[in-house]
Amino acid sequence: EVEPPPKDEL
Amino acid sequence: MNIFRLAGDMTHLASVLVLLLKIHTIKSCAGISLKTQELYAIVFATRYLDIFTDFISLYNTIMKLIFLGSSFSIVWYIRQHKIVRRSYDKDQDTFRYVFIVLPCIFLALIINEKFTFKEVMWTFSLYLEAVAILPQLVLLQRTRNIDNLTGQYVFLLGAYRALYILNWIYRYFTEPHYIHWIPWIAGIVQTLLYGDFFYYYFHSWKNNKKLQLPA
């Protein structure tokens, strides 16, 4: 399972 | 970062800072719902738990700190400031927290991307943000008029929501695998809540008269 990218929105 | 996202962040930032600066300058919070402001402070506090664990960019970290600092400052002003707090009309701001917070906790526990503490808190913050404006809208309906302060504030918040939706559409078509159902649906619900308000806002602007919401 691929780690999702970090949440970059505010 | 695309232009919609940046413009969305800037209108969001403007909404909070305009409110804080005006409260600070005119020493009054008349027409502002403390409950909505407290809910927003909770939204930022629960969403930005990653502020010390994940570094995304300097922009991201600074914006998070500003949102946290300004939202808690607004709450402090309304609750604690010796002059400002006198202008807070507690009797009109009657929306019950439990009707908002409990469903959001419940939804976040059952509908989330991953059942971890941070992820559930993040999801909770999205659901809460979608409905946190409700006490403010109820207060507006109740007092039946909107001064410049609350009008601008709700207008800027609405612009932020609309721009974020454009940002998601843009990212969906330009970034591979950019699919986030939960923030999208919560965001659309939040934007729809503003739709009703906007109708009256533009109507009053067009007729150049003081805004009167229907009972």
List keywords for this structure.
heterodimer; A: about 10 residues; little secondary structure; about 0% helix; about 0% strand; B: about 220 residues; mainly alpha; globular; ER retention sequence binding (chain B); protein transport (chain B)
Describe this structure in words.
The complex is a heterodimer of chains A (10) and B (215). The termini of chain A are far apart. The model of chain A has no long low-confidence stretch (mean pLDDT 80). With 10 residues, chain A is low in regular secondary structure. By secondary structure, chain B is an all-alpha fold. Chain B contains 8 helices and no strands. Chain B has helices spanning 3-26, 34-47, 58-80, 97-110, 117-131, 134-143, 148-174, 181-206. Chain B is globular, with a radius of gyration of 17 Å. Chain B has one domain. The longest helix of chain B is centred in the C-terminal third of the chain and has 27 residues, at 148-174. The A-B interface holds A 4, 6-10 and B 5, 9, 12, 50, 54, 56-57, 60, 63-64, 67, 113, 122, 164, 167, 183. Chain B: It comes from Prunus yedoensis var. nudiflora. Chain B: Its main location: endoplasmic reticulum. Chain B: It is a multi-pass membrane protein. Chain B: The chain crosses the membrane at residues 55-77, 97-115, 121-140, 152-170, 182-202. Chain B: It is found in: Endoplasmic reticulum membrane.
Number of helices, counting only DSSP H or I runs of 4 residues or more of chain B: 8
The gyration radius over C-alpha positions of chain B equals 17 Å
**Helical segment count of chain A:** 0
Taken in chain order, the helices and strands of chain B follow as HHHHHHHH
Radius of gyration computed on alpha carbons of chain A:
8 Å
Regions with little confidence, pLDDT below 50 for 5+ residues of chain A: none
Q: Strand percentage of chain B, roughly?
A: under 5%
Query: What is the makeup of the main sheet of chain B?
Result: none
- Quote the distance from N terminus to C terminus of chain A: 26 Å
Distance between the termini of chain B: 42 Å
Number of domains of chain B: 1
- Beta-strand percent range of chain A: under 5%
Mean pLDDT of chain B: 91
Seen as an oligomer or otherwise, the chain set is heterodimer
